[in-house]
Amino acid sequence: MTEKVALIGSGNWGSAVAKIIGRNVSKFDHFDNEVKMWVFEEKVNGQNLTDIINTKHENIKYLPGIQLPENVVACPDLIKTCEDATMLVFVVPHQFVTSICKQLKGRIPANCKAISLIKGIDVNDDGFRLITDMIQDSLGIRSCVLSGANIANEVAEEKFCETTIGYRNRADGELFRDIFHTPFFRVNIVEDVVGVELCGALKNIVAIGGGLVDGLKLGDNTKAAIIRIGLYEMRKFSKMFYADVKDETFFESCGVADLITTCAGGRNRKVAEAHVTTGKSFDQLEQEMLNGQKLQGTSTAQDMYNILSKKDLCHEFPLMTTIYRICYENLPPIRIVEDI
Ligand SMILES: NC(=O)C1=CN([C@@H]2O[C@H](COP(=O)(O)OP(=O)(O)OC[C@H]3O[C@@H](n4cnc5c(N)ncnc54)[C@H](O)[C@@H]3O)[C@@H](O)[C@H]2O)C=CC1
Ligand SMILES: O=C(CO)COP(=O)(O)O
Asked: What residues make up the catalytic site (predicted)?
């Protein structure tokens, strides 16, 4: 059977993986050569972003300077992008997934499989859900997850790194590996969707901590301490809510490696550092510094705080709780080391 891949999302990471997927589907007979990519339409320099991508083969707003393969076709219509796909790649900021799933419900082929590259969780009145569970529950399809130490610009420049795919069904994991794996983007597949996904979501909160430490000029030892405590709280939270999360997963690219790279070079780190040096709010800095790209760490800190405070567990997660308070309750940044 020929598989047809559709990409839902075309931001910084979405565009970087479009380059890999476009090339990889051409290498195998079991994939259709065309990859449709849904673009949240906007005007850039007076032109539709989709038209720019389809003529210049470059996403000049979210991944400038990187050539995309010509078999990646930008499409502003979500349903048309996905209606004939058998493999859906979800790669949008996590706050947009609910509305996307609502629009896709009942409009995709029954034999579809999905993978989420999204780092975040979905909080509701009853607690929280993984993004893969949200996709599975709302669309009635199986979903894998991909997460790793993968700063998009470096991947797009083909600098070597690793990534982790978490699967429930091994055949799905192997199929998705085919569209992502390259010599410079090495994929390892593991049977632990929950562990891989929670690592990706929670490390963004720790990255805010890393940026605060940089803004405070506290040095490398302090940064290492934040990373260690962050990893400890990530594992504790994951196991508290999902007992079968595997310890080994924290040693994969999605675990310790992503924590290190994101605390060194990610957007959450950069904006948190600027929060200390300028005193401006995270929302304002996101607007001023990221040119339309989105922060995931602040809202995930808020999501986690909501979960913990409802269960009276904040005292068991002092780092995550303090980071939330610095982001949302005007706590002075220095409390990152005083309160943990
Ligand atoms: N950028 C990176 O280095 C990496 C990002 N990720 C994760 O991938 C996910 C997607 O991130 P990026 O591709 O970097 O996105 P991004 O941060 O570049 O976000 C901007 C994207 O959101 C779209 N958008 C804006 N408003 C929207 C709306 N109302 N509905 C739908 N889309 C809208 C924009 O059109 C644009 O495509 C996130 O969860 C992120 O944590 C994971 C690994 C690396
Ligand atoms: O997830 C990432 C790298 O793996 C990117 O992190 P930021 O969103 O902080 O840039």
From this structure: 203 (proton acceptor)
For 269-320, the pLDDT digits (tens) are 999 999 999 999 999 999 999 999 999 999 999 999 999 999 999 999 999 9
C-beta separation of 162 from 177 below 8 A? no
Q: Is 40 annotated as a binding residue?
A: yes
Place of tokens 């083909």: 158
Ligand 1 binding site (Cβ under 6 Å of any ligand atom)? 9-14, 40, 62, 91-94, 96, 117-120, 150-152, 292-294, 296
Separation in Å, CA 321 to CA 57, 282, 300, 305, 330: 43, 17, 11, 6, 13
Taking the centre of ligand 2 as the mean of its atom positions, its distance from the CA of residue 315, in whole angstroms, is 27
Q: Please tell me the distance between residue 163's alpha carbon and the centre of ligand 2 in angstroms.
A: 13
Q: Give yes or no: 203 in active site.
A: yes
pLDDT, one tens digit per residue, over 160-177 is 999 999 999 999 999 999
Quote the pTM value. 0.98
